[in-house]
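Researcher: Here's a chain I'd like modeled. Treat it as a single chain, no partners, no ligands.
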Amino acid sequence: MLNERHEEILEAIWVAREKNKSSDSSIQDNCTIDYTKQELDDLREGRLIVQQENDIFFTPAGEKKAEIIIRRHRLAEVLVTSILKVKQSKMDEIACEVEHSLQEEVEESICTLLGHPEICPDGKPIPPGSCCRKDSKQVVNTVTSLIELVPGEQGRITYIKPGSHSNLHQLLSFGLNPGVTVNVHRTSPAFCIKYENTELALDPEIVKNIFVWKTNCLL
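Model: Modeled as a single isolated chain. Structure tokens:
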């Protein structure tokens, strides 16, 4: 499982390669963290990189993963500068924070909203995504109340609007936290969901206050 530090290393390898460099020192110069030999070993054991003496190269799987990371970072740069109006001096720092939290569905919506940009603010190319190849024009609103889902649909919890603090604490105690994916099992006679090997029946008034990013259609 990759963590944020591993992703920063893959990103640095990509940026160094754009400068026609592949040495460990060049990659470290382009990395936002001081990575360790163990972290490089993790990537090598995960078959994402190969090392030849002092040079580091992607495997096909590693290149694919790095392309996704670079795409999200550079989309985040466009977002924070053009939409959020963040100062250029803070762009990279904030983009780094944003990129690690972008889910695929959010990434595509942001890309579509921005008009499928091809370069980031400092002129570097943004790898195209599937939405670019389809030339999507419409951002689909997939954040909705859980109550709107029907049996067979699922969604990832984005936030919970507390009807009361006691209800919110109760849901959190059940493990219904933002980021958890829930499947709607049935909606009557009770609204039942399944998640992480748990099945739970909820009051419809509580269900209305759980908002999810819809992640699939009917099976």
